[in-house]
Amino acid sequence: MDHPFDIACALVSAGQGRYNGQAPAAYWNMAGPFGGTTAAVLLKAAMLEQPGGVEPVALTVNYCAALVAGEFQIEVREVRSGKSVRHVSMELTQGGTIAATASLVCAWRRETWAHQPAKMPDAPPPDALPPMDTGTRLPWLQRYEFRFVRGAMQLQAQPFAAPQPAHSLLWVADHPRRPLDHLSLAALCDVFFVRVFQVRGTLVPAGTVTMTVHFHASAEEIAAQGDEPVLGVADAQAFGRNFGDQTAQIWSKHGRLLASTTQLAWFKE
Amino acid sequence: MDHPFDIACALVSAGQGRYNGQAPAAYWNMAGPFGGTTAAVLLKAAMLEQPGGVEPVALTVNYCAALVAGEFQIEVREVRSGKSVRHVSMELTQGGTIAATASLVCAWRRETWAHQPAKMPDAPPPDALPPMDTGTRLPWLQRYEFRFVRGAMQLQAQPFAAPQPAHSLLWVADHPRRPLDHLSLAALCDVFFVRVFQVRGTLVPAGTVTMTVHFHASAEEIAAQGDEPVLGVADAQAFGRNFGDQTAQIWSKHGRLLASTTQLAWFKE
Questions:
Q1: How many CA atoms, within 13 angstroms, populate the side-chain half-sphere of residue B98?
Q2: Contacts of B213 (CB under 8 A, 6+ apart)
Q3: Distance, in angstroms, between B160 CA and closest chain A CA?
Q4: Do B236 and A113 touch (CB under 8 A)?
């Protein structure tokens, strides 16, 4: 039986650069599916149009409208293909409404000088931490295994009197487990709860409007992670006038920075 | 006489959603103009299509090909306009080549709960630091006043034996001075030298392929900065396989986070 994530990313070709997919019920969030699967399926469509050996470098997804249940269409457009770097644009529509736009930088990446100034935070091993109980919650939460080191969301009856830290550190994996690849890595970049909930201790109407992912690791390094939890770090810099940001990193169990990501989420009040 | 930055951002309407501009000689870099002006002129074109009161929220620019001297065309496309949030796509072409694509999230932003977890780094006042001598260097360098607190680029005859810190802290302003606005703030997000030069101590073929800017401050807060230097902080997380990242923040003299930005730059070897 296919993994729910692979079902969420399943596409049927509808002509050159055109694909049809299904909004994934298994990843449903409050309004529409989890944005991580939308990012992943847009990345998948773009990569299906690339020659062999090309790898993702940078992905930006703009969330324009909530997806509804049922079929969606993706159109992939080749913007510019140089000797090594390629630029691609994607658009996801549903019933004539543009639900998401995206851009991908991808490339034939060769070995070069390499250096990782960022250091993985210290954390106890995932097995030392209990998984968050997601059993009766939203479908998308049940598709992940969250093991918080610190910064688990604490929703209160009333907002905190003073803003709490926006920082979270957690091990996270697909549930059921699935070997990591560029697609699930892209989705994991959106797995952190909207920082405004974390800082205020209460739910307010909110949603991601744009997310950018930078892929630092090779397909081989990502595959070396297997299906074990990755370490996620999320934080925020500023909230105000309806928008708040999130910065995050995804680390392999070996201390390799697999991806870094930033996003802005809208919130109502 | 118009400021060189305003000349760089000058656009002539060529029908609805279409504009013509000129690649700015005053901001020339090694190959084509400084990427910051390209970001600014794309933002300007998109904002010219918006109703009054709409402000920028998030801008992503993908640099697809170097601009050459002469005219370019920008096409702005309205993707989705909700009650408050608006999504726009932009494309810059020159002689039939797509030189840049971009997306903008903009919105009517209202007062809401606000909180700034990020703290401005300590720095001596700009007047206490000498400006970098840019007199005989590339044109775009002469359009800015750089006052480094630390992390000034030190180019060597040979690369450093060991990678140096990617961190830089500097006061920076337009030269000649110009009151800050969203356009010059977008350009300032690309003002930090490619981190790979900084870390390796040598120039290698390199260029920004994608930049994302998040705007945290209101037009009023940005205007309150006047023409005084902003404090810029730049760093990097990972370099390898032809790409290296940059994270940066732009702070007002009052300690307000005006914008945060991430980018990926390609490098050859």
A1: 20
A2: B39, B58, B59, B60, B185, B186, B189, B259, B260, B261
A3: 13
A4: no
Find the closest chain A residue to B117 by CA distance: A237
Partner-chain contact B245 A216, CB within 8 Å: yes
Which residues, given as ranges, of chain B have pLDDT below 70?
Answer: none
With contacts defined as CB-CB under 8 Å, which chain A residues touch B81? none
Q: What is the pLDDT of residue A157?
A: 83
- Check B210 against A103: CB less than 8 A apart: yes
The model's pTM: 0.98
ipTM summary value: 0.97
3.30.565.10, 3.40.50.720, 3.40.50.1240, 2.40.160.210: which CATH number matches B4-267? 2.40.160.210
Average pLDDT over residues A174-186: 98
pLDDT, tens only, A37-82: 999 999 999 999 999 999 999 999 999 999 999 999 999 999 999 9
Mutate to test the interface with A, among B67, B77, B80 (most CBs of A within 10 A): B80
Give the tens place of pLDDT for each residue, B85-95.
999 999 999 99
| Chain B nearest-CA residue for A166 | B117
Band (A155; pLDDT cuts 50, 70, 90): confident
The yes or no reply on domain A4-109+120-267 and CATH 2.40.160.210 is: yes
